[in-house]
Structure formats: C-alpha cells, structure tokens
Amino acid sequence: MGVIKRTQVLIVGMGPVGMTLSNLLNLYKVDNIIVDKLTQFSPIPKAHYISNRSMEIFRFCNNLDQEIYRLQQPLEFWRRITYLTYFNNCKFGILGTKDEFSNYKTINGYYLDLDSQSGVANYDQSKLNNLLYKHLKQCKYSQIMLGTSWKGYEFVSKSGKEKVISKLEKTNSNLEFTIESDFLVGADGAKSQVRKAINKSFKGHESLQKLLNINFISKDLAKVCLELKQEIIDECNNIKLVPTTSMLYFILNPSLIGVMVLHDISQGNFVIHIPLVSSSSEKFDLDFFKHIFPSLISQVCKKNINLEVKSIETWNMSAQVLDSFVDEKTNRIVLLGDSAHRLPPSGGFGMNLGIQDSLNLAWRLAFVLKNKYEVDIKKQLNEFNVERIQHAQYACNNSIRNFYRSLFIPKAIGLDWKIISSMQKLISNADKYIPNKILEEKPVMDYIYKLGMFRFSKILRNENKMEKIKMLIQVSLVLQLY
C-alpha cells in the first residue's frame, strides 16, 4: 500500500457534476481531491442543454457562463425542434418546426432572458468537461488525479473524530494508495462504484425504452440542415421560406425512425437515438447496423450523404431516483448526479439536476468544515437530502412526461412499435432461419431490414395522417425543454 494522502473532501468522478463541485469547493477554500479512472475525457457528445440555473452556478464559478456563451454555437443553429420524414422539400418532407425562442427578444444572435441574468445554453458535455477541467487546473484548493480508480472505503471513528479512508489504484501502474478524507462524494455516474459500496438501490422505471445511440460526423448532412427551408404561408397568403436548422430532429421515415441531435454544425457532429423495442438489445448486431446506417441517412436526405460513424452502442433509458443520497450509517458519504438519479434525456434535466446538486452540497460542506464541526453534520446532510430528492423526483416526473409527449406525433400516424420489435427479433435470430452462407451476403440482411420497415412506408404516405401531424405541431404538442 502506498502513501496516505489527506484532504477534506474526496470526489470520485470527473464529469460535469464532480468538477462543478470541485470548482465550488475551491471558491469556499475547501481542500479537495477529485479522481477518475479515465486518463482522458470521452470525445462523444452526450448531454448538451444547460439550463438557466446551471448557468447561474457557472456564473458564480468565475464567470464560466460567459465562456460557454462565447464558445457555443450561434442561437440560430439550435433554437428549433423539427419533425420531418425527409430532409427535403418534397410533400410532407418537413412536417413542422417549433421555435423554442419565438417569445424572446434577440440581440446580435443572443436572446434576452428576463427571468435570469444567465440564459440557457447549448454546449455539449464533451466540450463542457474540457472547459471545467481547464478551470479546475487553476484552482488552488483542488487536486486532480486522472487515471485513478476508486476501489473501496473504510469508515473510522476514534476519539470523536470520524474519517473515511478510501482505497485507490493507479490505472496504468496498479499502484495502490489510500486517501483519508472528512467526506467522500460519489459523482461517478449511473454505474457508480461508490453507490454500490454503500448498498443503495434505485427505485422507479428501470427501462422506459432501449435505444441505439450513434455518434457520427457528416459535413454533407450539416450542409443539408443549414440549407433546408420550410415553406409557410404568412398572414398575407404569401409563400415564405423559413430556416429549419434545429437542435433536435424527430425523424419519421420509412427507412429510419429516431431523434437526431445536431451538436456542432461547423464540424458536422451528430448523435442519433434510434428506438429498439426488442427485449434483447444486447443481441443487436451493431456491425450490421453500422454497415447500413450511411445508406439509411442517404435515403432520408434523398441524396448520397458521406458520413463517418464514431461510435455505436445500445443504451437503456431509465427514470429512477434513490430514496436517499446520503449514507445514513456514516453521514460522511454523499451521492450526486447520475449516481443518485437516472433520468430520460427528454428535456435536458439530468446533467442540470446534478450540477444543482453540487451547489447545494458545496456550501453545506464548507459550512460544516469551516465551523470545525460545531454545526450539526447530520442535520445539514438531511436537509440536503430532502431538498435534492424533491427536485430529483420533480425533474424525473417532468422527463417522463416529456418522453410521452414526444410520442404523440408517432402515435398520431399510427406507428406500431410491435413491427420494429418483430423486425429486430428477426435480425437478431436470423441465423436460426437462414443459412450462414446466405447471411454473409449483406444485400440479404439489407432486405430483411427493409422488409420490417415496409408497413411504415405505407403509414407515412397517408395524407390524412400527415395533416394530423402538422396540426399537432402547430398547437405545440411537442417536446418542452423548459
């Protein structure tokens, strides 16, 4: 066992939540060490919507909000949500576009928010991680330890003094050492090792939906998004072309159904979430889908689109909140962010909720430590627990509500998700029915996929159903961000 280090707060997990907490503790002059098993941050964009309250917290962190405003994409590229069948001006290609900022005044590409000094932002998590890390390296009271895995803890109480002794290991060298801290904070994500160590279990919806997530780069598609216009009829009955460049695209196409996020139009950086209804998504043939995905995007655009798939993975969308974020046995171990709550991405509540967890905990830990434990630790953590659980449950319910709101449009045109399930099972178990020699031929697998989508094609060509969708979008029965 290596050298024992000493700090006031040990934070496990260097995502936006853990690094926000470390930044805040530094402002309160509280010594902290933050560790993460990874040696570098993932370049894959995930959460991207930053709420007013989170931006206010970043404003408190040496005006970090101003850097985000400066670095993010111009508002014109992310102010909208669009429903479409094709990235094309063909009949029923664009079903409708909703401008989330139509009620706000804008000046020089920025909108004015009368409710807060800090407006919302669209800045993806991979970029936010790097920005927070840059600030963290300049913090006097924060020590960073990348490539360090948290392995477990021991709680020690002697002569009225209580401490948490954590066991850690360097990822590359297997060097083991310990860190002694007054408090241990688990901000290490949905698969939190700290949560497992204190035997906390989630409650709620374990699986609202299974999704296939694909991160891809395509400047061709970015150009299509930038140039695509929607025809509308103004109050004078004149046909007018309006932009449709959006943050979210809900794609309802005979070849592809999913929600696509435009993270960076200059780089052509996209993520698409495709629903999987099969009960066994772990059997899903990722290589097969990676093979056919470029052709599916090309079909949606009605032109050849060059793209590069950066990552492809299945993901289980949950809606769960712990019944306690604090370890009651020690009152020295706390969980934040996805370690304490797992929310659907609909509405952008998850990361923001975790950032706000950090502020509530930071000032309480500073209050306890600066007063040399003369205040009631249990009382402070209990108040934190009550407040944050209420917020988490509220956000979780809103996320679920948003998720079901997003299904109004597919439901309106009668999309039967059982067809997707049947198609998925057929592909996953194709080897039981089709000789391996035939399966090796990609055109055969392409045919199986197209066969499963055939009925969708008929539904989406129904003009009455398409008109119904347009009406629903006009009355704003779409996803609400805030």
UniProtKB/TrEMBL annotation:
Protein name: FAD-binding domain-containing protein
An MF annotation (GO) of this entry: FAD binding
Record key words, sorted: FAD, Flavoprotein
A UniProt-annotated Pfam family: FAD_binding_3
One cellular component (GO) term of this entry: mitochondrion
InterPro entries documented for this protein: FAD-bd, FAD/NAD-bd_sf, RIFMO-like
Top-level taxonomic group: Eukaryota
GO biological process, one term: ubiquinone biosynthetic process
Ranges in coiled-coil conformation: none
Lineage summary: Eukaryota, Sar, Alveolata, Apicomplexa, Conoidasida
This protein's record includes keyword Aminoacyl-tRNA synthetase: no
Domain FAD-binding: 6-394
Species this chain originates from: Cryptosporidium hominis
